[in-house]
Specification:
6 helices; 4-stranded antiparallel beta sheet; about 200 residues; about 15% strand
């Protein structure tokens, strides 16, 4: 009888373990863990499956353009430039090119990060980072609402040029799948602008 009880308990425990693993396998946390494993293995094709780089770059480049436009307009006004109107108009004419350049640079940065590369961009004098410094990244919060999720990542190395203390990820469930994909990183555009500013002021 004791043997039967032991067997029954083993079956229940095994069943619970399978249920827990099945649940975890369909969470944003699991997808992020798989992406991190792929980055460590320098497996770009697997890592990029969990990131919508086109959407992220498009959204971020629009924010970069808005920030650049605001900075330029404020500078023109502060200098009391009599040709400020012409300057702003000229900037607006260049806006599509500025946005496309930012988008291309952001996509390249994402590609290099997912490839496990040790450079953040392919520009001359690119900032470099020690991948071991990112070993303390952790999921602080994950709120799922239907097929979308808001994730907060902590453990960002300090100090950093972008002055970021945490990163927010907006994720969505991949259609016909139990996996999740990163679709937006709100901190990306401000970080990109700060990195550009730091490069301009560096000797």
């Amino acid at each position: 009888m004791n043997a039967v009880k032991a067997l029954l308990l083993a079956v229940i425990v095994a069943g619970l373990g399978v249920a827990v693993w099945w649940y975890y396998g369909g969470t944003p946390q699991h997808s992020l863990a798989l992406m991190a494993d792929a980055v460590r293995a320098r497996d770009y094709e697997t890592a990029r499956y969990f990131v919508d780089d086109e959407r992220i770059a498009e959204t971020a480049s629009k924010s970069v353009l808005d920030a650049a436009m605001t900075q330029f307009t404020n500078k023109m006004k502060a200098d009391d430039n009599p040709f400020s109107g012409l300057g702003v108009a000229a900037f607006q004419m260049m806006a599509p090119r500025i946005k496309d350049t930012a988008k291309d640079n952001i996509k390249e940065s994402i590609k290099q990060a997912l490839s496990g590369d040790d450079t953040l961009t392919n520009r001359s004098g690119a900032l470099r980072f020690d991948s071991n410094r990112f070993s303390h990244l952790r999921i602080e919060e994950c709120v799922v609402s239907g097929n979308t999720a808001e994730v907060v990542i902590g453990g960002i190395p300090q100090p950093n040029p972008a002055q970021i203390t945490e990163v927010h990820l907006r994720m969505a469930r991949i259609p016909n799948s139990r996996d999740w994909r990163i679709e937006e990183v709100p901190e990306l555009a401000p970080a990109y602008v700060k990195l550009l500013d730091s490069e301009k002021t560096s000797p």
